[in-house]
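in:
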């Protein structure tokens, strides 16, 4: 059984097309009826739209095998709360379409998603709101954000900066929060009754943002080098032995061949 990341794992960060072996790997799981969940931190498009895109490029993922943070947001933030949301324009449009009220005067919640060009004034506004008592929520806790072959601080890095600056603790909607993994497991049990975390292998290109949290719950971590990191040496030596993934592959093709 598998939990499978998307960005940098099933699709390339720059072209947004399938990585080597990704289509064949999903086809293999579908053909052999192997239980799996595709768990992505994507927030730029409505859930059904992004899943439709993945299907359109050959990744035949049924809707019951898919989970993203937008599908979890209402369980974390009530729509009666005023939100100062920071992220890409498509993300802000999605929030509006979901019925959330955006307020940059006196918000109840500061909500962080990803974009590559946060401005100093935006960071200053976030800090003022948090020092004024607003809650801090991250759509996910990704370490790095990759676009146009450049690596930027991910949402996790921004959350930790704001926490350090304001002493405001934060919660996370998507990976690697326990609530997100629990929901993915709940959905997986519809495919395989009695499934537990110890039965699951999680595949991702983000060691800190995905694998470490999953491994702490008993999952087996598999690290692919098709996304955020150009070599294992960029991240593995800095990890404690207990945090290191069980296996490392260049891409999904290597995992498929190992099966």
């Amino acid at each position: 059984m598998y939990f499978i990341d998307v960005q940098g794992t099933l699709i390339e960060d720059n072209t947004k097309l399938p990585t080597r072996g990704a289509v064949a790997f999903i086809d293999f799981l579908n053909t052999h009826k192997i239980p799996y969940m595709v768990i992505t931190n994507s927030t730029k498009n409505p859930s059904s739209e992004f899943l439709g895109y993945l299907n359109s490029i050959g990744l035949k993922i049924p809707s019951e095998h898919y989970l993203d943070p937008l599908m979890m947001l209402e369980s974390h933030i009530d729509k009666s709360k005023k939100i100062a949301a920071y992220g890409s324009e498509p993300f802000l449009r999605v929030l509006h379409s979901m019925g959330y009220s955006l307020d940059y005067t006196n918000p109840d919640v500061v909500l962080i998603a990803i974009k590559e060009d946060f401005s100093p004034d935006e960071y200053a506004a976030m800090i003022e709101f948090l020092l004024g008592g607003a809650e801090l929520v991250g759509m996910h806790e990704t370490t790095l954000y990759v676009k146009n072959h450049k690596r930027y601080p991910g949402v996790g890095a921004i959350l930790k900066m704001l926490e350090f600056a304001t002493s405001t603790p934060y919660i996370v909607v998507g990976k690697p929060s326990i609530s997100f993994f629990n929901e993915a497991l709940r959905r997986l049990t519809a495919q395989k009754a009695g499934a537990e975390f110890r039965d699951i292998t999680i595949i991702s290109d983000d060691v800190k943002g995905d694998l470490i949290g999953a491994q702490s719950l008993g999952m087996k971590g598999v690290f692919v080098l098709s996304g955020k990191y150009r070599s294992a040496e960029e991240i593995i030596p800095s990890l404690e032995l207990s945090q290191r993934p069980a296996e490392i592959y260049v891409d999904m093709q290597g995992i498929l061949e190992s099966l």
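note: The longest strand covers residues 82-86.
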